[in-house]
Amino acid sequence: MDVFISQYEWIRRTRELLFRYCEAMSQEDYVKELESFGGDSIRNLHVHVADCYRVWLGSRALGRSLPRITQDSANTVEEMREIFRKTDDLLHEFLEEFKGDWDHTMHISFGEGDSAEISALWLYTHTVTHEFHHKGQIVKIGRQLGYIPPDTDLIEP
């Protein structure tokens, strides 16, 4: 058993539960920007999460040139699901590339002269915990808009 693939499958199932929650919302609420969340919307947070995977795993770790994921990339939950299907493919490519070599470090530049040596394990951990951080914000925004969320803790198989 590959523990990272199994772990990501739990994350993907939990994301699907969150998508179903978002489908219960009106499309207007899905894209509604709330001042109380710095002008973010649920859609914008989904875009931010997917783009984080793209930047950290695709561009920085795998050295791929990938188009930026922007707010204009998706306006519906179904369009966002398609973006995350591509994100899933990217993550599996990353897991295959670094399988058994999680201590492998990469020199990552952040612009303005800042850089760091970052391991493949750190990159994986950062991206998946980042998604769960924003999952909590999405649920909180949904509550503020009047939608009662399901239990979105990590879903077991």
Brief sketch in words of this structure:
It is built from five helices and two strands. It is mainly alpha-helical. The chain has a single domain, classed as Four Helix Bundle (Hemerythrin (Met), subunit A).
Secondary structure elements and pairings:
Blueprint: H1 3-23, H2 27-31, H3 42-61, H4 77-98, E1 105-111, E2 114-119, H5 120-144
Antiparallel strand pairs: 1-2
Helix pairs in contact: 1-4, 1-5, 3-4, 3-5
Describe the fold and architecture.
- By secondary structure, the protein is mainly alpha-helical.
- It has helices at 3-23, 27-31, 42-61, 77-98, 120-144, and strands at residues 105-111, 114-119.
- The chain contains five helices and two strands.
- A two-stranded antiparallel sheet has the order 1-2.
- Strand 1 (105-111) and strand 2 (114-119) form a beta hairpin.
- The longest helix is centred in the last third of the chain and has 25 residues, at 120-144.
- The model has no long low-confidence stretch (mean pLDDT 93).
